[in-house]
């Protein structure tokens, strides 16, 4: 029987994980609101484009978080895992910095400073991903909440400070980078201790760990593309006025997508244990599905209220379509949980469903063509997302790791560990 190397917290901090996660996500919107009020339209556009670089920079961070969470949960942390994780994050930051001239040219930005600020954030996000993943795997909910909260405060607080001091996009990004570095400095030592508070597995190879990070980067990158693609395609096929309406509805879409995120955070450790996987999948799908149903019902009944919260009095016609955006976002939330279930067991084929949905959205935009209506477009997108969610749920529920264990080793095969003296 597989053995888990987790330390379950006896205190009730786990009830704060959803609250801190939602707080961190909501806090990120504060930076956009402040930027909109301090900057002119041109500079605001530059700032949003550069902040999207920080969003891209979260891909290696999420990958490190996923890999170290699975390893700490299953007691298969290899020697040098922390060092390798930091090397990956630093390398990605260096690549972004070296590409600063190309990125600035593509975004039509005169200064490279903002790009360097985004590059500065990459290693910091890697440290924070390591801290969150280690806390996730060990189920140390206090440290998980601390890392989540510090990441949100550092990113937004630093960005706002930079904006207020400089009133330009470069200041916002440099401030964001510095704020995240400060948050990472606080979390680094707890991250190392939590990663190595149990003996390492002498059979675990660092090459496989790096391969796992690469696969997780692919998965998170593909899902990030899918979660934002419809908005890009909408600008291509809708009129400017309708595209603005769709952009407002996309806020509801993102809210429905990220609302169930704490479920994956809290259940990923149990998903990684072979003899707990199937029961945890069923429990997780019930929780995510329940939140999805409540979100859709609320938007269907209170669509006008949702439209007012999102766009004030500017989008009164969004109320009748709010529930469709909720369906699309909820569908991707279910698909995301299925994807996390696959990552916990190194199931790579589930990415086929994500890429199929990406291709499907492109086909929908071409089939509907220019001049279509927001309702027609979001109806098609919602149907596709629901279909993707159904396929993911079927794959997740059918998979039995006891009968069909992952081909790569180093799962929950707990053995005699070796205590390391130099964790870095």
From TrEMBL:
It is a multi-pass membrane protein. It comes from Antricoccus suffuscus. Keywords: Cell membrane, Membrane, Transmembrane, Transmembrane helix. This is O-antigen/teichoic acid export membrane protein. It is found in: Cell membrane. GO terms for cellular component: plasma membrane. The chain crosses the membrane at residues 15-36, 48-69, 81-107, 113-131, 143-165, 171-192, 285-310, 322-340, 352-370, 376-397. The lineage of its organism: Bacteria, Bacillati, Actinomycetota, Actinomycetes, Geodermatophilales. The keyword Transmembrane applies.
């Amino acid at each position: 029987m597989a053995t888990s190397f987790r330390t379950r917290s006896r205190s009730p901090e786990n009830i704060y994980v959803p609250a801190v996660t939602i707080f961190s996500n909501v806090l990120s919107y504060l930076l956009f609101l402040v930027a909109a009020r301090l900057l002119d339209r041109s500079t605001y556009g530059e700032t949003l484009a550069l902040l999207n670089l920080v969003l891209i920079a979260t891909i290696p961070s999420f990958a490190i978080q996923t890999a170290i969470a699975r390893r700490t949960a299953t007691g298969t942390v290899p020697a040098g895992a922390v060092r390798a994780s930091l090397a990956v994050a630093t390398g990605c930051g260096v690549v972004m910095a070296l590409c600063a001239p190309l990125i600035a040219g593509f975004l039509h930005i005169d200064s490279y400073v903002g790009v360097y600020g985004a590059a500065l954030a990459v290693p910091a996000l890697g440290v924070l991903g390591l801290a969150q993943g280690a806390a996730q795997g060990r189920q140390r909910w206090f440290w998980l909440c601390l890392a989540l909260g510090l990441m949100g405060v550092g990113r937004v607080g630093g960005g706002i400070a930079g904006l207020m001091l400089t009133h330009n996009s470069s200041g916002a990004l440099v401030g964001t980078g510095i704020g995240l570095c400060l948050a990472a400095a606080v979390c680094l030592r707890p991250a190392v201790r939590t990663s190595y508070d149990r003996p390492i597995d002498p059979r675990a190879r660092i090459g496989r760990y790096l391969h796992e990070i690469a696969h997780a980067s692919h998965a998170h990158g593909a899902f990030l593309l899918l979660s934002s693609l419809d908005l890009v395609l909408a600008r291509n096929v809708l009129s400017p006025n309708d595209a603005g309406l769709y952009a407002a509805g996309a806020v509801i879409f993102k809210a429905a997508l990220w609302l169930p995120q704490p479920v994956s955070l809290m259940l990923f450790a149990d998903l990684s244990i072979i003899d707990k996987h199937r029961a945890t999948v069923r429990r997780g799908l019930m929780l995510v599905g329940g939140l999805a149903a409540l979100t859709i019902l609320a938007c269907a009944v209170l669509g006008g209220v949702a439209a007012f919260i999102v766009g004030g009095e500017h989008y009164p016609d969004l109320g009748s379509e709010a529930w469709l955006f909720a369906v699309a976002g909820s569908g991707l939330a279910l698909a995301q949980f299925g994807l996390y279930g696959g990552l916990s067991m190194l199931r790579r084929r589930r990415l086929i469903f994500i890429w199929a949905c990406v291709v499907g959205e492109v086909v929908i935009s071409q089939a509907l063509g220019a001049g279509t209506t927001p309702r027609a477009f979001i109806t098609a997108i919602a149907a596709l997302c629901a279909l993707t969610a159904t396929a993911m749920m079927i794959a997740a529920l059918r998979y039995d790791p006891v009968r069909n264990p992952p081909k790569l080793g180093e799962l929950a095969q707990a053995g005699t560990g070796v205590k390391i003296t130099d964790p870095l």
